[in-house]
Amino acid sequence: MLLNKHYSRFFNKLRRNTKLTTCLRNYCDNPKVEDLEVAFSNGRNLKLTTGRLAKFADGCAVGTLGDTSVMVTAVAKTKPTYGNITPLTVDYRQKSAAAGRIPTNFLRRELGTTEREILTSRLIDRSLRPLFNEHFNFETQIICNMLAVDSINNPDVISINAASAALSLSDIPWNGPVGAVRVGFIDNEVIINPTRRELQSSVLNLVVTATRQNLVVMLEGSANNILQQDFLKAIKSGVKEAQFVVNGIERLQKKIGKPKRELEKPPELSAEIKEAIQLLAKMRVREIFTNYTHDKLSRDNAINAVRSDVIEKVRVDFPDFDSNLVLDCFNKVTKQVFRDLVFEEEKRCDGRDFDQLRDISCQIDLYKPLHGSALFQRGQTQVFCTVTLDSHESALKLDPVSMLTSGMKEKNFFLHYEFPPFATKETGKVGPLGRREMGHGALAEKGLYPTVPSDYPFTIRLTSEVLESNGSSSMASVCGGSLALMDAGVPVSASAAGVAIGLISRYNDNDTKHIEDYKLLTDILGIEDYMGDMDFKLAGTKKGITALQADIKIPGLPLKIVMEAVQKATDAKSQILDIMHRCIDKPRTVKKENWPVVEKLEVEAHKRSKLIGVGGINLKKLLYETGVHVTQVDDTSFSIFAPSQQAMDEAQEIITKILSTERTPELEFGGIYTATVVEIRDIGVMITLYPNMPPALLHNSQLDQRKVAHPSALGFEVGQQFQVKYFGRDPVSGLMRLSRKVLQAAARQ
Question: Which EC class is the enzyme in (predicted)?
Fold first, then answer.
């Protein structure tokens, strides 16, 4: 009887612990291991496995391509949190063990999140977020664990597909699945999921995420000035191939997928309060959005004033109202008015036509000490860019796992993007970069990288600081960065520019396959990004496309709209480049006084040790005194980097003095000279042939006609002198070839 009571108490506690009960139910109900094989048109297969690992998670799948495997888990809380943004977090982690490596830091373990991990997390997030229900407010976490990496197949696309499978098989409400592929373009042919080596010869590196009915969910990629028609062909092929993944996951979901959670209907305001908000706000908001004299700040202030007034008046008439619900309702009314006006007025809130750019101004060479600088202003978006040129020693070193997956050890061109709070008239903490800043900087870097020469003798650091922001600061960084590079005299292949395209669309019941009407907006404002359905960023030169990032906020976009957006972005890009060329249209050829200088120095093999010094002391001293880096390129040549021509002249004077301190006598081949012993070693004796000569080794084998194991056997002492014959220098090592025994043989004859 007592035992039964204990069991009863235990099960009652277990029943009250909702989270533990859910985990145990998930564990017990988890199906057996299931495998899915997705075959792409090029014969490369993606394998998705579920039911073996992490059974307590709401959903788990392992994606494998080649010998690269990633495990992705999806877990959502059972209690909702209030907020208008889907509380989704994606954490992608690279594991050194997966690559057979040990981390190189002091603790020999994974520490802070790397840049590549953050960028991959953003890539996965943007592929999943559009398909969550707008009323889904349960905190959800997607964790991607790298299990194995083969240095051939990149884990990022595998992670997207595994995350799609994990969410689809879980009980988390999600309108997937999605499928993702990487698209390359080699010799005018589209390559699906190219290997790391194939990517090195590809002019395109594009990730395409799509859902059922060929709807595009996310695009991100870089290209080496690929032509527009080839780029569109690659997108179409990627969407088509992604359907194989979507269809496969749907079959797996029907077979073993868990029933989705029922979402509780969110609390709503009464019809009376909604009508009051409509009457109080609609016309006033409409008047603000049709007043084309407003700028960003005045428009925001006017909207905020109306919002405060509406809330106060609702509080008087309905004292028991929920302020959060009233605020949500007001925001929905504002958004609907904004979107309706685009269709009704055929104008945008700042009075521009749909294809019209904002006013653009450019300046270069702003401050004398800078190697290159530019200020790019587009509307109320202002970006200040600087270029710093330094030696190859300043190249950005990548972590071991990133080296393995990208095939790149270091970067001699990189862009750092900063977005301080004052750019939007706000205050905030200034510190380490967030994910957004890192993502925008990486996109701008992709847009400019193809234009920078690969054999440039300097490391290039490009900084972009956003001073004012009202939309598309990353694309402004491409424009300002290109101007700054040309001002710094970097021989770019062509100038590059970027632009963002927005979308306002009308559709019913999340059926984005059949969009009733839509408007594409060129060069969007911040409010058009926030209120709209897409932020489609494209960068490139006059000839082609260098980078693309499409953030789509609706559950998929038809290919027709994507193709039209690419065309509009290409047209706008050409217009921007025409304006930029009025400021500067080619790299500066007249050198600035503060530009760094690189020269090559040829040094005879036997003089290398004199230049370098013991332990490199001469080169270190040269760096401290003049700021000049001297690095050895090969056996006989050195590269000299100087921060200015004046420093180079000073360094060359010191180097000449080091190499010509003593005049080296000309030794004749076959000549006989008097040698002085300066050191006794186990393998021979160190001798000099003339004063201040670097000691040369006379090996035991050349000491005597007899076999000598140690010089002491012949009674040699330091300071002793004898005759040797000179046979020139070794062509490889540059060391003197000397012999004593040949003279003994000649004497006997």
Answer: transferase
